[in-house]
Amino acid sequence: MLRIQGLTATVDGKEILKGIDLEVPTGEVHAIMGPNGSGKSTLSYVLAGRDGYEVTGGTATFNGVDLLGKQPEERAAMGVFLAFQYPVELPGVGNANFLRTALNAVRRGRGESELDAMQFLKLARARMKELSMPEDMLKRGVNVGFSGGEKKRNEVLQMALLAPKLAILDETDSGLDIDALKVAADGVNALRGPEFSALVITHYQRLLNYIVPDRVHVLMAGRIQRSGGKELALELEASGYGAPQAA
Amino acid sequence: MAAVTETIETVQAATEGTYKWGFSTDIEMDYAPKGLNEDIVRFISAKKQEPAWLLEWRLKAYAMWLKMEEPTWPSVHYPKIDYQDAFYYAAPKEGPKSLDEVDPELLKTYAKLGIPLKEQAFLAGVEGAGDSAADARMPIAVDAVFDSVSVATSYKERLAKDGIIFCSISEAVHEHPELVKQYLGSVVPQGDNFYAALNSAVFTDGSFVYIPKGVRCPMELSTYFRINAKSTGQFERTLIIADEGAVVSYLEGCTAPMRDENQLHAAVVELVALDDASIKYSTVQNWYPGDAQGKGGIYNFVTKRAQCRGKRSKVSWTQVETGSAITWKYPSCVLLGEDSVGEFYSVAITNNYQQADTGTKMIHVGARTKSTIVSKGISAGHGQNTYRGLVRVAPTATNARNFTQCDSLLIGDLCGAHTVPYIENRCLTAKLEHEATTSRIAEDQLFYCRQRGLTQEDAVGLIVNGFCREVLKELPMEFAVEAQKLLQISLEGSVG
Ligand SMILES: Nc1ncnc2c1ncn2[C@@H]1O[C@H](COP(=O)(O)OP(=O)(O)OP(=O)(O)O)[C@@H](O)[C@H]1O
Ligand SMILES: [Mg+2]
């Protein structure tokens, strides 16, 4: 269970998160929607531990373990995965090399044995097939020269390989064509189970037809303003966010 | 794929931050008296029972050196070197013998360094080779130079079957005097520069390679240099000749114990490529770089030059420079033959208080000569990294081409990167291109890697290896793994 209580955070001295309260019980998938600049990515970075995103109050625990005091790689080893809104390019670093390094780092963290190249390739190929991704994505530099959609698919592939316990998808659907959208949704749905939780950040109700959320939250002006079932997304699509409610 | 795997594994295994080659070997040594004078030159020559012509050659070099000044143009700073305060000859008391009789202490030393001196069964035929491709590795012939002498050379007999000569230069002086006499100093003359003159006077050992006409050397040749003795300079001399149509790949590695004092290494390497010959020369330079405060470390003042004498000949220099307190080194190509090709691929790392002034010279003389320069400089800590490169095109070099790419990566803000390209073009039809970039490891790159579970250090290692990829892929596979590991170790503690 992801439990966030009274979380406040600043970026460059500016308060962006103004008291987030949110619970995602284990086994559930929650969607977060909200206008541009409302703090959705900020929340994902704070949960993942990015430098420069300073927590000024509140708590965040995952399965009872404090997240906020941990290094990003320690959180990753705990099973926290962030699919970036803007995946980062690593020139010269081969995608296969990167994926295997990441997978083995996370496996070490989980006390599992590392995979050798052959084992890794077998696994990677299987996952890529499921996600109908061309195999040459493995040979290319990490995200270098990838189209916007390819970058997002690569995030989904990484998620599928790392098999996280908590996946935070930050607008993974943006920039995806219809087929890719289904593939991305399949990626999440394949991981769904009693041990898996996800926070799916999106602007579009459409994604939620494929990844059916247990709950939908609206993040506005640094706070969760509304929460509801999956029908809330439809309502928002019809009527917009409106003005933020006073705290 | 096995290479990739292994690479990652090795990179990850390398997590200790210390210089792991810093131990010293306790062995009985034979020294020349301390200091440098004509008698020392005679002493070295006598120790090696050299012919008179070589002693004369050395003495001429010594006389030249006396009149020369230490160069001050490189962007490196160090206290004045007292050339009288060092030993110019140090050799294990038990002289070099056949491979089976090498002092066990030395064998242990090289084993500890991961250098195989023992010959393995030569896997030329496929029979008996393991089913895993990784087991069926090509053996590497090694010449091991310990302080002033070559202590062992492996696979000599096997190579001799193809007419290949691979031995220490001291041995070559006795066994193949005509070749040595013809080529020694023909690429780097005694008076070429201050350090080359010093080397010519007091060089002690090094490797000699001759690949006959039309022969493709069946295995990698390598020399492994080890400075062990205290207060001792190492002055090796390497000479490689590839006759018409010959092909050879040669590797050079080096380490030294951790000592508080600075030790001088002034080598000369000469390469000669005749018609259609090709020489690939790779270096992983890992001399002791000094400690985190900048104390100790090797002064690496090296002259490396190749002459592409023949038509369509090719020389490729690849270097990974991670060690030394100071590096002063410009592996160069003189492209005389028509259509000859020179390449220079370099990674130079400076961390802590290391200084590197390195680059290349491509001298185009023949028509349609081509050169490529790819230099990757990485600075961390207080490191200072200078790329200094000269591209000179003579009027005779019609349609010559050069492509230069110089990239610098900065880690932290106390270090420096400098690019000093010199271009002298006297030919209208020449085409020269130069690209240069300077970048930093971006915070979002580090965060991306760490979010995927990599530690900060592994993330830096991965990004740096990516930055150097174009150079590392030029290295033979075994060396590439070693080099990647080294890059990461050299940068430990540089971020965060
Ligand atoms: N480094 C920064 N300095 C100042 N303000 C910042 C910085 N980074 C983010 N912000 C501000 O924080 C606010 C929240 O940004 P965030 O990226 O979390 O929004 P978002 O909800 O993800 O928006 P979108 O839907 O457009 O992705 C924005 O107003 C943004 O301008
Ligand atoms: Mg966002």
Walk me through this protein's architecture.
The complex is a heterodimer of chains A (247) and B (496). By secondary structure, chain A is of the alpha/beta class. Chain A has a single domain (2-239), classed as P-loop containing nucleotide triphosphate hydrolases (Rossmann fold), CATH 3.40.50.300. Chain A is built from eight helices and twelve strands. Chain A has helices at 40-48, 72-78, 95-109, 117-130, 148-162, 178-191, 207-210, 231-239; strands at 2-11, 14-24, 29-33, 53-62, 65-66, 80-83, 90-94, 141-142, 166-170, 197-201, 215-220, 223-228. Chain A has a six-stranded mixed β-sheet with strand order 6-9-10-3-11-12, with helices on both faces. A four-stranded antiparallel β-sheet of chain A has the order 2-1-4-5. Chain A is globular, with a radius of gyration of 18 Å. Chain A starts with a strand and ends in an 8-residue tail after the last helix. By secondary structure, chain B is an alpha/beta fold. Helices cover 23% and strands 34% of the residues of chain B. Chain B contains twelve helices and 23 strands. Chain B has helices at residues 2-13, 38-47, 52-66, 104-112, 156-160, 169-175, 177-183, 194-202, 443-451, 456-467, 469-472, 477-490, and strands spanning 29-31, 90-92, 140-146, 149-153, 165-168, 207-211, 220-226, 237-242, 247-255, 262-265, 268-273, 278-285, 297-308, 314-321, 326-329, 332-335, 341-350, 355-364, 370-380, 384-393, 401-411, 416-425, 431-440. In chain B, strand 3 and strand 4 (149-153) form a beta hairpin. In chain B, helix 1 (2-13) packs parallel to helix 12 (477-490), helix 3 (52-66) packs antiparallel against helix 8 (194-202) and helix 6 packs across helix 7 (177-183). Chains A and B meet through helix 2, strand 7, helix 3, helix 4 and strand 8 of A and helix 1, helix 9 and helix 10 of B. Magnesium ion binds next to helix 1 of chain A.
